[in-house]
Write a structure and sequence with these properties.
Keywords: Kinase, Transferase. InterPro entries: Cro/C1-type_HTH, DhaK_dom, Dihydroxyacetone_Kinase, NagB/RpiA_transferase-like, Sugar-bd_dom_put, WH-like_DNA-bd_sf. The chain is of the alpha/beta class. About 35% of the residues lie in helices and about 20% in strands. The chain is built from 24 helices and 25 strands. The strands form 5 sheets. The protein has a 7-stranded parallel β-sheet with strand order 1-10-9-5-2-3-4, with helices on both faces. The two termini are about 55 Å apart.
Length: about 700
């Protein structure tokens, strides 16, 4: 078993060694061929001959690299996934969006802002890429200013820095003029500006200005740049562009921009990366998106959770071919797009199973992994024709055959596949009216969510219920915005029942797991009783606040595309609090008895469950995939004992497979603290494909 230890490359001074002679080290390996060789050897499982060919060096050089890597602890006998996660995210972004290269920074760094760290990394990339005679195009923004601040002084002959947008009349510290001036000064390069504002009063004025010989020559220089560096701005109302950009407030409020998701060098794009045409675009002076797309190196530098949607839009439109971002943002982008097969658990400290230098493969009853979701849905529709139907024009949108009644609040749920029966299994009378389905462990895109919304909208509004994951939040929010444009009122309640995923004072950051079962059940009942959207939302929030889950993992699962375990856990170990995508838990401990495990979980729940003696709860003992009913009932026996000793009554109990993580071994315990209102709604009749009550 081998590993790449990235920390070693940062802490140890490199010794003298030959450099690759034919092929440059990819940017993500920070100009360190040892790290590159270690990655190819440890992660990609290449032979030394294959590594030599990939790196453009001799086999003897590769042998020296591997020997030195072992000596310095870069390659050793354990593979720590947490140290590889940034590279795994970078590789997945490269493959998903056809990038030339990608650098992903660690998300946590004490004492330094993300903008500063992105700017410093952008400066290092720019220093490496620029050549004598280059012309470098620059847009504007805080990150661009940080790049200029961190770039090392250099003196390359015939180097120029070119402004690619018009200027700003605002007194902003990061206007186009200042960003270009600072970078040109740092590089000791010639500065080429644009002698016009970024936005003019009319399209006619723009046409006149663009015919001026001086401006035409400046734009000829901008179109001829070899490289362009730009930030990616969100178009959200709280984004910097609304406060200190070159655009007037009334321009940004124009109807044509309501579907804008991002801004690149002054040009607006929608969530698919397509140009947003409108009056503002016709008055904007700067390179067009098509002109930017012709530039060989298009380097985007952006990060932070508020920019996830914007970065995804830019990548979908192929507006950048080199990306610099942070791990949390990169992971969120991949989740929103449909997490690729390379990414199992990215943020843990687990080891990946390796046998004979290659990760062990698992067995599944599947055909083509690329079609597994469609084939699953086809089988599901044939098994449950009285409960479920697909929309013909949107097969990832599954609707209840019962259909929402006129005047009833529509309930839409959704999330990644691999958790069945959650989410699609809870579509039916008295529960959810529709479900949007994503790829394995990945959020559904906005389009099927919107189609579900339109299908169940019957005049009383639509309520979204789903787990608190970055990709889901982003895509459901986008769908809600699109629904609002069609005059459909949408409310959202995130489920946050996973006690282990964040401390109680940060409960809003917790994940939604098996507790979805109870929140879906009582909210679906409220809608079925024709309650208003205000009441349905109130009940959903109340149920979520009173629902608590903790799970324990005993063995990993494997994705259909990889047939490889997404983490490793020892034969005598268990992980308390692991998430349903393999996210790390709160502790890894020796495997205890069933009673010990149940007690550990319950103590964590009791610490937050405000249920004094005489209270009533409902219980869910849930398999995460492969833990059998025999073991679940043993666990339930202990749960019942502990609740009885606390003087807490159990109104109802469910034991079985209700929220899975593919074939993961393990289980979770969920308690919901009931009152009279929730008890009545929990008992309300429902009938769906995988659950029936009343």
């Amino acid at each position: 078993m081998v590993s790449v230890n990235t920390a070693a490359t940062r802490k140890t001074k490199p010794v003298a060694r030959p450099q690759p002679s034919l092929t440059q080290v990819p940017l993500r390996f920070r100009d360190d061929p040892l790290l590159w060789a270690g990655w190819l050897y440890a992660h990609d499982g290449m032979t030394q001959n294959q590594i030599a060919k990939a790196m453009g060096v001799s086999r003897a050089t590769v042998n020296n690299y591997i020997a030195e890597a072992r000596g310095r602890g870069i390659v050793n006998l354990t593979m720590e996934t947490s140290r590889l996660s940034e590279f795994m995210i970078a590789q997945a972004l490269i493959e998903r969006f056809d990038l030339s290269d990608c650098i992903v920074l660690p998300s946590v760094s004490e004492g330094r802002s993300l903008t500063e760290r992105l700017g410093e990394t952008g400066a290092r990339v720019l220093e490496r890429l620029i050549r004598p005679g280059d012309a470098v195009g620059v847009s504007w923004g805080r990150t661009l200013l940080e790049i200029a601040r961190h770039v090392a002084p250099t003196r390359l002959p015939d180097l120029s820095v070119v402004q690619v947008t018009g200027g700003s009349s605002l007194k902003s510290e990061f206007s186009p003029e200042i960003c270009v001036s600072r970078l040109a000064s740092a590089l000791t390069a010639r500065q080429v500006g644009i002698s016009a504002p970024a936005v003019v009063s009319s399209a006619a004025v723009r046409r006149v200005l663009m015919d001026e010989p001086l401006l035409r020559a400046q734009f000829d220089s901008a179109r001829a740049v070899d490289k362009i560096v730009f930030g990616i701005s969100s178009s959200r109302r709280d984004a910097t562009i609304h406060r200190s950009g070159p655009f007037a407030r009334e321009d940004l409020a124009h109807a044509s921009l309501q579907r804008a998701a991002a801004v690149i060098a002054g040009r607006f794009i929608d969530d698919r990366g397509r140009a947003v045409q409108g009056p503002l675009d016709e008055r904007t002076i700067g390179l067009t998106l098509k002109e930017i797309g012709r530039i060989k190196f298009r380097i985007a530098v952006a990060g932070g959770p508020e920019k996830t949607t914007a970065i995804l839009a830019a990548l979908r439109g192929r507006h950048a071919n080199v990306l610099i971002t942070d791990a949390d943002t990169g992971h969120a982008v991949l989740q929103a797009e449909g997490m690729p097969q390379e990414l199992g658990a990215l943020n843990g400290t687990r080891r990946t199973q390796v046998q004979g230098g290659n990760r062990m493969k698992t067995k599944k009853l599947i055909n083509d992994p690329a079609n597994i979701i469609e084939e699953m849905l086809e089988g599901m529709m044939k098994a449950h024709p009285k409960h479920l139907r697909q929309l013909e024009h949107s097969p990832r949108s599954v609707i209840s055959v019962e259909g929402p009644r006129e005047g009833k609040v529509g309930i839409v749920v959704g999330g990644g596949s691999g958790h069945e029966p959650t989410f699609v299994g809870y579509v039916g009378k008295g529960l959810a009216d529709a479900c949007a389905i994503g790829n394995v462990f990945a959020s559904p895109p906005p389009d099927p969510i919107l189609e579900c919304t339109k299908a169940v909208s019957k005049g009383a509004g639509v309520l979204y219920l789903y787990g608190n994951y970055a990709g889901d939040v982003m895509n459901f929010d986008m769908a809600a915005e699109m629904a609002a444009m069609e005059d459909i009122e949408v409310r959202t309640v995130l489920t946050t029942d996973d006690v282990a995923s964040a401390p109680i004072d940060q409960k809003e950051k917790r994940r939604g797991v098996a507790g979805n079962f109870f929140v879906f059940k009582v909210t679906g009942a409220a809608a079925d009783k024709m309650m208003s959207i205000d009441e349905c939302e109130r009940i959903a929030r109340k149920a979520n606040e009173r629902t608590f889950t903790v799970g324990v993992a005993l063995a990993p699962c494997s994705l259909p595309q990889t047939l490889r375990h997404n983490f490793e856990i020892g034969p005598g170990e268990m992980e308390i609090g692991m998430g349903i995508h393999g996210e790390p838990g709160v502790t890894r401990e020796p495997l205890g008895t069933a009673d010990d495990v149940a007690d550990d979980i319950l103590e964590r729940i009791f610490a937050e469950l405000d249920a004094p003696e005489g209270s009533t709860v409902a219980v869910l003992v849930n398999s995460l995939g492969s833990t059998p009913l025999m073991e679940l009932y043993v666990i339930n026996r202990r749960v019942a004992e502990r609740l009885e000793r606390k003087g807490i009554s159990v109104h109802a109990t469910w034991v079985g497979l209700y929220c899975s993580s593919l074939e993961m071994a393990g289980m979770s315990i969920t308690l919901i603290h009931l009152d009279d209102e929730l008890t009545e709604l929990l008992d309300h009749p429902c009938d769906c494909a995988m659950f029936r009550a009343g």
